[in-house]
Amino acid sequence: MKNITVVKIGGNVIDDADALKSFVKDFAKLEGPKILIHGGGKEATKMSAKLEIPTTMIEGRRVTDAATLNVVTMVYAGLINKRIIALLQAEGCNAIGLTGADANVVTATRRNPVPIDYGYVGDIDPAKIDDSFIANLLGSGIVPVFCAIMHDGKGNLLNCNADSVASSIAIAASRIAPADLCFCFEKAGVLADIDDPTSLIRSITADIYAGLKKSGVVNKGMIPKIDNAFKAISSGVRSVTIKYSGDLLVDTGTVIS
Fold first, then answer.
1. Looking at residue 112, what DSSP letter applies?
2. Residue 224: is the preceding peptide bond cis (ω within 30°)?
3. CATH number reported for the structural domain that contains residue 216 in this entry
4. Low-confidence residues in the chain, pLDDT < 50
5. What is the pLDDT of residues 181-232, one digit of tens each?
């Protein structure tokens, strides 16, 4: 394989039927082997509310108790994953939906409850991802579509941060062929002013990132996204871009270097 494109799609796009259909059309047009990763936090929050299960967030991260784990598994691995698969098939893109438990492709370790207990939340070691299984799928012309539900190899499911899943899978993909990672969401990229779409920061280095965090320009959910971008770059991924989902086929966005 000449290269592999790994794309992570954000929850606000998943939550918008028209935006999702448009994104899927563009994703299907991407040439070469590709992998899609998705979360779906907003949909999970809505389902939890319908089931009268409280949603607890700490610093933008979901606390996953036993009841919430059931909800996110149903929503991520079921409703959202299969909705995306159906849309891809309609575009002539042969895809298969996966959790980490399927084919034992991705295992995770439950996060240490100290200093914060996030419940059934897992962290992934990219070195333990079965890249040979992923390579076999890609070599057969099948697009893997991963949700953010992994397993610990001991019979337990774990909810993982979708940005972390994307970074880890991109790192594993880089062991197969040169890999490019793209985080797609509802903004043009990393913005100096969240309310001004023209304030795009086109390139972020480690030094620039430190300044953006200190000034508060980068905060909340954007921090784990950029942290995972730098982790990917430092672990062999060729390029990482953060961009608007509607610009997937356009050379724009924020490049992490």
1. P
2. no
3. 3.40.1160.10
4. none
5. 999 999 999 999 988 989 999 999 999 999 999 998 888 778 888 999 999 9
What is residue 57's predicted lDDT score, i.e. its pLDDT? Answer: 87
Q: Write down the pLDDT at residue 221.
A: 77
Q: What is the total count of domains within the chain?
A: 1
Residue 217 and residue 197: Cα distance in Å, rounded? 14
The whole-angstrom separation of Cα 257 and Cα 239 is 8
Integer CA distances (angstroms), 213 to 113, 245, 255, 257, in order: 25, 24, 17, 16
**Could you list the residue range(s) of the whole structural domain that residue 201 is in?**
4-256
Q: What is d(CA 133, CA 104) in angstroms, rounded to the nearest whole number? A: 9
Per the CB < 8 A criterion, the answer to whether 181 and 36 are in contact is no
Q: What is the pLDDT of residue 208?
A: 95
The answer for residues whose C-beta is within 8 angstroms of residue 155's C-beta and 6 or more apart is: none
50-84 burial code (b ≥16 CB/10 A, e <16):
eeeeeeeeeeebbbbbeebbbbbbebbbeebbebb
DSSP secondary structure string for all residues of 12-70: HHHT-HHHHHHHHHHHHH--SSEEEEE--HHHHHHHHHHTT----EETTEE-B-HHHHH
Whose CA is closest to 254, among 195, 155, 181?
181
Q: Which helix (H) or strand (E) holds 184?
A: strand 179-185
DSSP string for 118-171:
-BSBEEE-GGGS-HHHHHHHHHTT-EEEE-SEEE-SSS-EEE--HHHHHHHHHH
Q: Residue 60 has what pLDDT?
A: 72
- Of 184, 162, 192, 196, give the one whose Cα is nearest residue 60: 162
The sign of the dihedral angle between the CA atoms of 90, 163, 100, 68 is negative
